[in-house]
Amino acid sequence: MTAVPQEICFVLMSAFIFVTGGVMSSLGKGIAASCIGALLRARNFSIRMKKLDPYINIDPGTMSPHKHGEVFVMEDGCEADLDFGHYERFTDITCSAGDSITTGKIYEKVIAKERKGDYLGSDIQVIPHITNEIKDFITSGYNDVDFTICEIGGTVGDIESFPYIEAIRQLILEFRKERIICVHLTYLPFIKTAGELKTKPTQHSVKQLQSVGVQPDILLCRSEIEIPDDIKEKLAMFCNVKKENVVTALDAENIYLIPHQYHEEGLDKRIYDHFNISEENEQIATERIANKWGSVARLIRNSSGNVRIAIIGKYTKLQDAYISLTQAVMHGGFANDVRVEIDWINAEDEKAEILKRLGGVSGIIVPGGFSVRGTDGKLEAIKFARENSVPFLGICLGMQLAVIEACRNVAGLSTATSREFSDDGEMVVDFMGSWDGREGEEIRDSTGNKGGTMRLGRYDCRLTPGSRAHEIYGGKGTISERHRHRFEVSAQKYGATLEKAGIIISGISEDGKLVEIIEREDHPFFVATQSHPEFKSRPFDPHPLFKSLIRAHIE
Ligand code: GLN
Description:
Blueprint: E1 15-21, H1 29-42, E2 47-53, H2 65-68, E3 72-73, E4 79-80, H3 83-91, E5 100-102, H4 103-116, H5 126-139, E6 147-152, H6 162-175, E7 180-187, E8 190-191, E9 196-197, H7 200-211, E10 218-223, H8 229-239, E11 246-250, H9 258-265, H10 267-274, H11 282-302, E12 304-313, H12 323-336, E13 338-346, H13 351-358, E14 363-366, H14 375-387, E15 392-395, H15 397-409, E16 416-418, E17 426-429, E18 433-437, E19 440-444, E20 455-463, H16 468-472, E21 478-485, H17 491-500, E22 503-509, E23 515-520, E24 526-529, H18 544-554
Parallel strand pairs: 1-6, 1-7, 2-5, 2-6, 7-10, 10-11, 12-13, 12-14, 14-15, 15-24, 16-17
Antiparallel strand pairs: 3-4, 8-9, 18-19, 20-21, 20-22, 22-23, 23-24
Helix pairs in contact: 1-3, 1-9, 4-5, 5-6, 9-11, 12-18, 13-14, 14-15
């Protein structure tokens, strides 16, 4: 139990909040868990956010953003589910590798122990060996914080998530309900022709939980309309929860409005009641929530203007693929009191179509990405931004392509390319061979494994005094950003060529070898970075690069 100012809160022991999902996916379990975290933080409780994902991959690093959405990168380099982005943005905490687990990782651990001989004599089973490993993950470090919030990925009833629910059942037996609360996020479809909200899917998903021995304490019900009293009563009766614990989660216009909305619906109060936490100073928390999260409503209401930022990418059909980027752009709008609209442009469209869509936009972002597919369209967009003085921000692959574009079209190096795209030509973007990584010498080449072998997580970058990047980052000499890439631009090998192409290296790795940030002097705002600044942007602390991109348009 950490030192918590007693005037704000009172809790007897560290507790667990489990968030499960019913009926179907995409209801926003990650946002629900994050909002619970945000409300607890408003009352000065210390929290830790964990997620258990049911898939068998070791991490989402090898999954397609098309199907699974963005891969979020933590400070320590853990490649994790995009929900960790919500956790960090809503609660302002920093998550780490120990907060994220998948079925793949759990089995990997159990199998390694079996080979070592840790279970000599036993046959290894889901119960207890796999469930013990899950419980160890959930309970590790729980005493260091007031609340551990655990989101269970997937939908209750999926075969893959069964061991997780079973582990919760066992933990309830061990810790008792006084220290555990189960919040089940569910959905009440509104049938227009009947003019009615239907409860049956929720009843069924709660039965699934009960059949494994877990009784939800709170039903958080997604709904298009207010839930009438009789429907709450019915849900309470059939699902065996208190009526006041049936909480409405109305669709919101903006996700940052949800914490305040949940508070007004009494979700945090229901949690405090469950744990017998006194109501003392609830008023302080209410004011804090209204000031902080209510301010987002004011920002949205008061922001005017129409800033259009074009994002040219390959995964534009699934917006979750760029979720942190979308959020960072929104935060940049908050910082400038403007409403920002994103124009999603498919990098694989015809050149003429791309150029037509770029006409009149306020700024262009070329985000991170992988493989040669779609790079022609992105190169066109970069050329367009350079030639037409449109504010431009390149991120990761976006920076590598800005380098290639300048080498080809300004420095006359017509074969300039990346090792990722081809084995022929001038490799201005390439494997670095060996270099000093975070954990000693790192080697990255074409024969290496694909999973977990990129330059991942936080790395320092030295900024060039007097550069735009230096100014954007508030005059700091060294900054750090999160990375996720396999290829690099060598400052030593290509510094002179870049200069010829009108590019200034304004950020460089600590050892002086790797290009981290580039910019153009002859342009109102042309900045590109090898890192992923979007992962560190927060609604109440927008990232300076996004803030400046939008300000560049306004100016
Ligand atoms: N594909 C590039 C690399 O691996 C860029 C990766 C990215 O944009 N995240 O280096």
